[in-house]
Every structure is written in C-alpha cells, then in structure tokens.
Amino acid sequence: MSTIPGRNRRRPRLPGGASAILLLTFIFLCIAAPLIWGRAAESTMVVDANQSMSGRHLLGTDDLGRDLLARTLVATRSSLVLAVLATLVGGVIGIALGLLSGVSRRLGRVIGAVINLLIAFPALLLAIFFAVLFGIGSVGSVLAVGAAFAPGFARITQTLTASAVSRDYVDASRVLGRGPFFVVRRHILPNIAEPVILYSTIHIGTAILSLSGLSFLGLGVQPPAYDWGRLLSDGLTRVYISPGAALGPAVAIVLAGLAFNMVGERLADSIGGRKAVSRRRTQAALAAVPTPEPDAISTSGGDALLEVRHLQVLYTAADGTVTTPVRDVSFSAAAGETVGIVGESGSGKSVATSAIAQLVEAPGSVRAQTLRFGDVDLLRPTRQTDGELGRTMSVVFQDPGEALNPALKIGTHLIEPAVTHLHEPKPSARRRALEALAGVAISDPERRYRQHQHELSGGMKQRVCIAISLMGEPKLLIADEPTTALDVTVQRQILRLIAQVGDRTGASILFISHDIAVVSEICDRILVMYAGFVVEEAPTAQLLAAPAHPYTQLLLAASPTMTARKDLPLTSLEGRMPGPGVDLPGCYFADRCPRADATCVSTRPPLAEVGVGHRASCWHPLTGSVQGSRQAEAADAVGAA
Ligand SMILES: Nc1ncnc2c1ncn2[C@@H]1O[C@H](COP(=O)(O)OP(=O)(O)OP(=O)(O)O)[C@@H](O)[C@H]1O
Q: In the chain, what are the domains?
C-alpha cells in the first residue's frame, strides 16, 4: 500500500496538551518569576562577573555578576506583557478600521487600499519603521508592533464583517430600522469575536518575536529594564565564551512564540471543525438607465396599503456595467390582501421586494414613479419613517437558520425590538413574546424562549421568525420563499401558519415563490414576473383558469399540482430568461414564446387590462375577449415606431 505524499500532510506540531502546558508555564512565570527570582536577577556580585555556565549559575552571569537564568525567567513578565499590549493596540486599531470598512462601502474602498498596501510589507519591517517614528523604548516599540499588526487585524475583521453583514438577520434588523452601530454591536461583533480572539492569540506569539527583535536591535526595551530581546542582544557578544547567555533568552523567545501560536491554531482547528463562515456580496454603483414611461396605471390607488409603480432596481458593477434585475414592476396590495409573486429563479422577485423593504444597498439603486406603504413614501425615508416601518413591515426569509443570529437566544430576538425601540419594559415584552411563540404553535414557549436557534428544527425556526413579526404591529409581511428551505411535511404547516397570521392580524402578505402551486394555495392575487417585469397580474382563480400570458401558461403547465393533467407529462420550460444585463427593445419572453412574431421582438407590450382586475403584457394574449384589440394596438405601436 502506498500513500500520496504532500496533499494530506500537515506540518508537524506540538501535541495540543504539550502546547497548553507550555503556555501555562509561561503564564505562571509571568506572574511568579519576579517574586521568586527577582532578587537573584538584580543582585550584583562583581566577583561572580562574566562567569560561564556552571552548577551554581546554569546560564552563567553577566558583567555585573547577575544570574542569567534568573534574569531570563524574570524577563518573562516584561516580554509577555509588552507582547499582549502590542497585540491589543494592533487589535483595537485594526478591528475599528475593519468594522468601518466592512459596514461602509465608500470608506471600505479607501481603507481596503491602505490595508492592501501595508499588508504587502513584512510585519517586522513595518515595526522597525514605526519604532523609529514613535521613538526608541518600551512604549515606542509596543506602539510600533501594534501599528504593524493593525493591517492584519483590519483585513480579517473586514472579511468577517462583510460576511456577517450579508446575513439575513442583519437585513431583518435593517427592516426593523436599526442603525449601523446597533448592527455592529448586536450582530457583527458577537459573530466575529471568536475568530478575532483566535487571531489575537496567535499574534501574541508573533508579537513576542517582533518585540524581541526590536529590543535586540536596540530599538525596544532600554536598560536598566530588560526583556528577552535585550538579554539576547547582551548575551550574543559573549556567545563564544558563555553560550548560555544567549541560549537562555533565545530558547525562551522560541518556546513562548511557539506556545501562543500552537494554542491559537489548535483552538482555531477545533472551532473550525464545528462551524464555517461563508457568504458572498457584490460590489457596484449607480448608473443611468432609461426609466419606464410614467402612466396612470390603475392600481387600487389611494386605498392600497402598498403602491408600487414602475419600480426599477439597478446595479452597476465595478467595471461600469449596468444590470437591471428589476426593470418595470407595478402593482398594489390592499390592506389584508395576500399577493403572490411567482416567476423563475432570477426573475427579480426578491430584489423587487427588497426594494420595498428598503434592503437594497448602495451601489444598488431604486427608482420608481411611486413607492408608497401606507403614508410612508419609501423613496424618501426619514428616521421617523424607518421607525414606523420597523414596527409595521417585516420580512420572513427563505432560510430561517440564516435569519436568526446564532449568538442570541430566541427570546432576545423576540423582545429586543420592543425593548430597544419602543422602550417597552422587559417583563411585558417577555409576556408578549411568549404569547407570540404560542401564537405560532410553538410548544413549551418558556423553554424555547431560552434556547438558541441551533436547538430548534427548521420549521420551528421559521415559526420563530414569524413570531418575531407578531411582536410589532404588522401591516405588511413579506415572505420570501419561506417554505423552500423546509422539509416537505413542514412546508404545508408554515403555509397555513402564514395564512392564519394574515387573517388574525389583518396584515397584507407579499408571498414570493417560484412555485405557482404553492402561491395559489394562500394568495388572493398573483403577479407573474419575468426578467424583471410583471408580465401578468390577476385574481388567483382567474389566473389559474384563464392565464393571458403565454409565460404564465407555461409556468402552470410546468407545475406538478395545478392545471396539468396527471396522465400527461409535465411541460418543461425550454430556453433561458434574458439576464439582468441584457437590453431588448421588445418583449423579453419573445425568444421562448410560441406566439411571438416580429412585433413582439421589436416593440415591448405594455402591462394592460385583459379582463376585470386582470392585466398582462403581451401582444397576443391567450384570453379571447381582448385578443383582437391587442392586435390592433400592436399594429398601432409598430406604425408609431
Ligand atoms: N446585489 C446584487 N447585485 C447585482 N445583481 C444582483 C444582486 N442581487 C441580485 N442580483 C441579480 O438580480 C437578479 C434577480 O435576482 P432575484 O434574487 O430577485 O431573483 P428571484 O426571482 O428572487 O430568484 P430566486 O427565486 O432564485 O431567489 C438575478 O440575476 C441576480 O443575480
């Protein structure tokens, strides 16, 4: 039997127990050595000067007759304390910069560029540069090593923060109107603390080496004070006469550096085995794209709780490329109404509802003729309206595991908005939270209240997320594929629960799904989205019975539980939807549409009435009564062009 060398090999390490014992020994020496050997380290005895290694002086003596073993042991305190201080300085500066750049994209670019520049230099080289800048001595060297470490801390914090801010629970916090400081304190710091502490532990080892290096070069600790670097520098001049003078501090530096590094790495390994952090976020900026023609599209007008007209969401990539995942979305939702949004993956459902929930971040930009929720103009948010939205609008995300902060108890998720924002006394918020948990059919609410998300099943977590929305005064609940990540048996329960919550609270619901069968179970009305457009909108029964848009017809035929006959194979959706970067003059569905003609390719059909409360954007709708008039409109449109 042979093994493949290299790939699976790990570099040799001290066993975990050995590195821990070594570290504890150094910590013990740091505390006790000056008390035990302090006198021997300081007492000068000229007759004993410059002695070599012997039974009485194991490492020999210095030129004043001081015992070098005692001095090496006593120097543990100064060496370790200075290393810890330098790591703290580097940590505080680096973490602050990393957080700042992680939460603010604009600052992030500048700070990122500076970090990239500094991180290209070896830390010791930077430390020497800063030592000259800050001045020679203990304080200067601590600041210098701290400053040299700061870019590393900033980089790891920036990366971890970017990952943490992309979590759904951070989005959920923003929906609740929380500011950046709250998000940092509540969601980012607890989630980045562990890796940052591990990184710091490893860096104490590196700090010992760097500070010893500075002292060795004469830039660090100055006589009569001493650390291992200083002792090494003095000992080196006599290395051929008495090797112990240099050997003692050299071994101490190596072992202490190794102990901190190994313990840090072992901790990181064991934690890394338990969990991994991942996620992505894009970078972009605002761009100019033609706005859809404003019109007087007949939504429910002033009575609607939510009114959306000609909504667009745009992203500009770093290279200036503009993408428009939401090209033109218009609809309204009355109070208490449940509106479903369906469409293939990538049709813009989530981005459109993110715009309503105020979750589109720079460099994304939102445009609309109207974007109104109750009395709140969502295009012109203020502090006051943010607070109001936090109470009245909530979002239930696809993955409840992502939506709940693993560092917080379930109870904290529930009561925090009420206690922090509405200044509700904790006992009353707790009572309401227990009621909310019971209201979403969670058994033993008292126990669940004290648990963390990892102790709950997927369905239970989603129930908690719905319970959180009940803690405010919900007027709009946005459910973004809330059942997709769940077990099939649980999906139905959650669907029913969302419908019950709507009935009980009178809240409107925007229910997003790629599955038209799921949506039709609980929705009064359905919007069909395609390539960033609403292509059809109708009351559920009407849409199912008589779809007007060929795309809706295909979606229904591809749905396993709807109108398709059980004895016939399901239709599959051939072809691909144009991406958000594509710009077409006509209908975006034309190249997949069996009814498309030259008009469809050259001229975009408006979203117009095809029946009562039924709109579709198609030149050749399937609904018979409007077919003739739509053909005439198409001819007019082509003539006008
Ligand atoms: N931050 C972003 N920057 C650039 N493009 C984005 C961003 N977020 C989403 N998109 C793009 O917008 C398009 C629509 O995405 P969206 O998530 O709204 O689709 P969806 O209809 O909800 O699909 P799914 O069911 O898969 O979630 C996709 O092409 C996606 O890549």
A: 76-270 (1.10.3720.10), 331-526 (3.40.50.300), 538-562+576-639 (no CATH)
